[in-house]
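During the reporting period the student researcher (J.K.) took over the structure-prediction task from the postdoctoral fellow and processed the backlog of single-chain submissions. One of the processed entries is reproduced below for the supervisory committee.
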Amino acid sequence: MRNVINGKSIRIKSIFRFLCLLGLIFLAVPHVFAVSLDGSLQSALTGLTNPKKLSVFLETFFVLAFISFLPSILIMTTSFLRMIIVLSFLRHALSLQNTPPNHVLVSLAIILTVFVMAPTWDRINEEAYKPYRDKAIAWETAVNKASVPLRDFLFKQTRKKELGLAVKLSRAEKPKNIDEVPFPVLATGFALSELKTAFQIGFIIFIPFLVIDLVVASVLMSMGMMMVPPSMISLPLKILLFVMIDGWSLLVRGMMESVR
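J.K. obtained the following structure tokens:
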């Protein structure tokens, strides 16, 4: 028993030392690339004592952290959230498990999001990025100018009820106008509004397919075919109905018009 305990303690110490080594590498490697030192770990750790080099290290760390959160920010501040949820509702309404595959739905949602967000991104490019690229404005001014088109889009798609809930949850002072609404509060209200709109569209999508399921189940029950799964009969009927009414075009057009 004592040998087992000693073996476990040695293993725990080895794991702890390994984690400490990974932590040192994580702190040292970005600093090596940021400050362009001679590449040695010792010089990187020594450079952290320099306030100027430390600020460069912190800036690099925050940039990397922002890049890691960038996909989530894009999802929560664009119409991608609505598109992917509606497409998922459609797949469940058709009683399809993995058709279309997830990467197909995500790719289609990204394409539709690009179409919807193109006017907003064009404004950001013309009003903020190009002047900053030409060195006509500073970085802070470019960020402020870029936030205006994005905030206009978010306010246009955000319901007052969800925005009020986000303001209440933030426990901040009630803003006097829309310009005083903090961006995190606005993004939260926008995400809640997108979820509500997506579920409303999904409910409408479910209704005709639910009717087909009920009709097929009633017919099978009346014919005494209780051992036949209703989904086996209703699935081809739902696919046939969706193809005959040109469902993909109707769905895409409806989602695009719901955003604009």
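The committee noted the following: The radius of gyration is 27 Å.
J.K. will present the remaining backlog at the next meeting.
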